[in-house]
Amino acid sequence: MADLHDDEDIPLASGGAAGDSEEGAEGAESAEGAEGPRPGAPAPELRARALLTAHPVADGHSGLPWALSQLTWYDLELGDRALETDLPRLREGAVGAMFWSLRVPEAYVGDRAVSATLGLIDLAECVVREHPEGLRLAHTASHTADARSHGRIACLLGPAGAPAIGDSLGTLRALHKLGVRSLTLSGTRWAGERGLSRFGEEVVREMNRLGVLADLSGSSPDTVRHTLAVSKAPVLFSRSAAAALTEHPDNVPDELLAALRGNKGLCLVPCTAAQTGPALRDVADHLDHVRRVAGPECVGISGMYDTESALPDGLQDTSRYPQLIAELLDRDWSESDVSLLTWGNVQRVLREADFTARAAQLRRPPSTATLERLDA
After folding, report:
1. Residue 281: inside a domain, yes or no?
2. Among positive and negative, which fits the CA dihedral 162, 164, 166, 172?
3. 27 domain residue, yes or no
4. Whose CA, among 26, 76, 283, 374, lies 20 to 30 Å from 152?
5. Residue numbers of the domain that contains 311
């Protein structure tokens, strides 16, 4: 399915001149996101780097905004040992897009959660503006593809935590206007152990109408099932591995991974020792399992870098993705399945969320529902 090109324009970073569009697909082949092979690199890594040149990594969960908010100084071009992400390592790791998490500490509730999320959005915009040769904000699949074709790394805002909307659909719409494209449903009164409340159902419908993806990582099984029943758009697990391999509150049982196939959603397997295991091969085991149960169209990667999570050996920073892809190729993953894992699945989900939103906007106006009226 072709990328959309009639989306509402967003301002381009100052480093991207209008003439850059002439690069087209050729620009993607020479994009800054893929460095050459390391001297003496094994054959699978050479294949991995060649594949990543055409199909770079779309990282489903980066903690960079919050990590940067805790520093007094940073320069992503020069790099910083306090971070696991910078532009040189992103390029070496062939990263083409990142979802920048806007989640704030669980202790932040009410107005504090809302204001802290707004602060992270402002910081993210400043970071992109300060690094125009490397980064570009993106809101849709076509923006993401365009950033890649110009040799920039696309930065999508989200997931934000649901407390950031303050139980207000108006605030949800305001965050969407600011660029937020996914929302984690856990941690609210309307998405709990028993599933979605009536207001929770309305939140999901309004997210569908806007094109905001529902992130179900950390949600109860009943909330997952309920959301899958209500949502007309694909859903995400932004940081979830296979519960069958590793017991962890955020990992997903096979029953729900199988249900994800029908929704055409996406389980983004995190590179964290707690959820997948202590080594790169353990992450590959989880990717194998999710691909087998949910299907190759429903699996992706979440680096979870700069989230203070312990990282597996071999995946210590964003430069290590080629080694992970080499491991998958060595396990006889087809190049087609790898290209879906790294880039294609995220692009498809973004496109389908946008198509769903356009159709929903023709059917219904913005919702005026409130928590007090529906869940009294």
Report:
1. yes
2. negative
3. no
4. 283
5. 47-374
pTM of the model: 0.88
Cα gap 220→249, rounded to integer Å = 9
CATH number of residue 241's parent domain: 3.20.20.140
Residue 293, domain member (yes or no): yes
pLDDT at 102 exceeding the cut of 70 = yes
The pLDDT score that the predictor gives to residue 99 is: 98
Q: For the chain, how many structural domains are there in total?
A: 1
Compute CA distances 126 → 195, 281, 306, whole Å.
Answer: 37, 37, 18
What pLDDT digit, counting tens, does each position of 162-177 carry?
Answer: 999 999 999 999 999 9
User: H helices within the chain, ranges in order?
Assistant: 24-29, 43-54, 64-69, 87-92, 111-130, 141-149, 169-177, 198-210, 221-230, 254-263, 273-276, 280-294, 321-330, 335-339, 345-363, 371-374
Q: Is residue 186 part of a domain?
A: yes
Q: What percent of the chain has pLDDT over 90?
A: 85
